[in-house]
Amino acid sequence: MSDSPDYSAVRKPLLEASALPGHCYTSDGFFEMERDRIFSGAWHFAGRTDELPQAGDFLVVDTVVGAAIVCRDSENGLHAFLNACRHRGTRLKDTGGCCAGFVCPYHAWVYAHDGRLRSAPGMDATEFNKDDYSLQSVWLETWGGFIFINFDDAASNLLTWLGDLPDTMQGHDPESLVCTRRFDFTIKANWKFVIENALEAYHTGTVHQTTLGAQRSESVATTGQWDALYVLSDEQKSIATLPGEFQAFPFIHSLGEKAKQGTWFTVIYPCLQLVFSQDCVWWLDIKPVSVNETSLVVGGCFPTSTVALENFTQGAAAYYHRWQTATAEDNAIAENQQKGHMAGLHAAGRFSSAEHCVHALDNWVLDQIFGELKR
Length: 375
Ligand code: FES
Ligand SMILES: [Fe+2]
What we know:
By secondary structure, the chain is α+β, with helices and mostly antiparallel strands. The chain is built from 11 helices and 17 strands. The site of fe (ii) ion (FE2) has 7 residues, from helix 7 and helix 10.
């Protein structure tokens, strides 16, 4: 990165603007600024409340600024705490599951579902009060069954962050959704390449030529820290299964008129994509690992009434096939894009009119890094 990079071309109106300079995708220094100015105060997606139906069910959430556990207690409450023992900081769990309590693998301190220290063997000679050594709690909020955590107590609350997204998506009745599948991917590419790709339909006729095919999209007016691309359905079916495939499931019964005609590909800044389609909702949980590596979890959700259908397993296979196929195609192109940037010689190009969400995201990133810190 040069001493004083020039971002003025990114700041111009869409059709005059250039994309972010190459170093924004390859520089450790830029990535560190993103970690400090964006991810340290961000709402990190943790999973769905329906994935934790029983007392003791827990999820492990790894982010670039901290690692947490989200757990259901016996009173139906949800808790989030750091995934680090209060004795000498050992990581407690690597994957989600269900447990009677969290037993540290080092010296066997045991914590309850709400993070309280229950026992600390061999500590009798030490003067200390167990109540002072609960796991460190992390701020947790939910909307529509989606769980979010934040490591910064000074951040805006979740509903302020989401702005008018809950109103726009209320017809999808998100509370009634059930997550039925997750798919895990590791992508050798910067996180912005992954979310940028998910926010434009300009590429679908080429990258997904033999699968999704070309798509028509529109912009969406939003308030709050989110944006969306609205993709129209050309047939009387959702785009959650591949064109020509059997439309397996009925539309969500409470959809409004606009929701019946298309799909919102949202971004909840910085990089969570919730996709609201006519018959299902899916997410792209994009989490940066390093400047050139990103973890991606794709999760698929259906209304409770759909999951109860006799042909659910059979019908859901078409959706799972679509998510796996299109995601693999998108991941491959993001890795190609990263390779194209690695020599450091790439000069930023221009945007098409279909890339308004990419332009908005890139400007949002610059706002966070170089603007006044607003959380
Ligand atoms: S580090 Fe956990 S019990 Fe020692
Ligand atoms: Fe794509």
